[in-house]
Amino acid sequence: MQAQSLQTRLIEAIRESGLSPADLARAAKTTTATVSNWTGGKVRAEHAKAEVLFRIADALNVDPRWLLDGDRNQVRDVSPAYGHSLDVAYLREAILLTQAVIQDMRPKPSAEAQGMAIMTAAEMLSEGSSIDIVKRFTLRLLQASMGSTDSTR
Fold it and tell me: Is the dihedral of CA 99, 101, 104, 106 positive or negative?
């Protein structure tokens, strides 16, 4: 199953959900053009926008990690190391925050690094860290994942 592409998994999930592409676009708060790009293979897993990925996965009731890499056997608990689940509001805030941090980064961090940054940011937010501290930490974490220590941003 790992050999399947993001495109193939998304098409499969849409078929299983019974939603039309237009219904999915409405449910995911995106456009039919975006859904078409994703189902047409124009979006690669390593370049998928986290916010769109999560909204599409939510609308289809599938694990976003499965859409990215095809592993249906991944642990569903969003914070297994800490033994509790994170509130969805923290995850959404962490996604937006991480997207803002990576917006101007060249090259873009890997999907794995972005996912790690999102989960770390969500955990920090849930523990009461300020947005500024979380942004700075997220930037450094992503730079470290790419071997860069430039913190001039």
Answer: negative
